[in-house]
Specification:
This is Putative secreted protein. Keywords: Signal. The chain is mainly alpha-helical and 115 residues long. Helix content is 39%, strand content 0%. The protein contains 4 helices and no strands. The longest helix has 26 residues. It is flat, with a radius of gyration of 36 Å.
Length: 115
């Protein structure tokens, strides 16, 4: 039983490693596909229709507006933006490491000035 206190830290570290592995595999759950509906999974950058909450919030105003003919707005011409000119990249800083040598002035015969 003298060896048990000697190896107790190693045994506890290995037990914690096993617990972390079991917890990680339980949280990862790589065995099943994610259950995501099709609608929230899609993303559109230019929505052509207003959100559904705006349509359901005002159904009476939509019927009143549809009775009156709305004039067609004139399409506005948006000038095309030019791409910015690419800026030249600065060259990377060279990685020149100077190794520390404290024996640069020694002739290896006497080491009285070494620290």
């Amino acid at each position: 039983m003298n060896s048990l206190p000697r190896y107790a830290p190693l045994i506890s570290i290995l037990a914690l490693l096993v617990l972390v592995t079991i917890g990680g595999s339980a949280l990862a759950n790589n065995n099943s596909a994610p259950q995501v509906e099709n609608q929230p999974a899609t993303m559109s950058l230019d929505p052509t229709t207003p959100p559904a909450s705006d349509q359901s919030a005002s159904p009476t105003t939509a019927t009143q507006e549809s009775a009156l003919p709305a004039p067609e707005p004139a399409p506005t011409q948006v000038p095309a933006r030019q791409a910015p000119q690419p800026q030249p990249q600065a060259p990377p800083v060279p990685l020149n490491y100077q190794y520390y040598d404290d024996d640069w002035d020694d002739d290896s015969e006497d080491d009285w000035d070494d620290d």
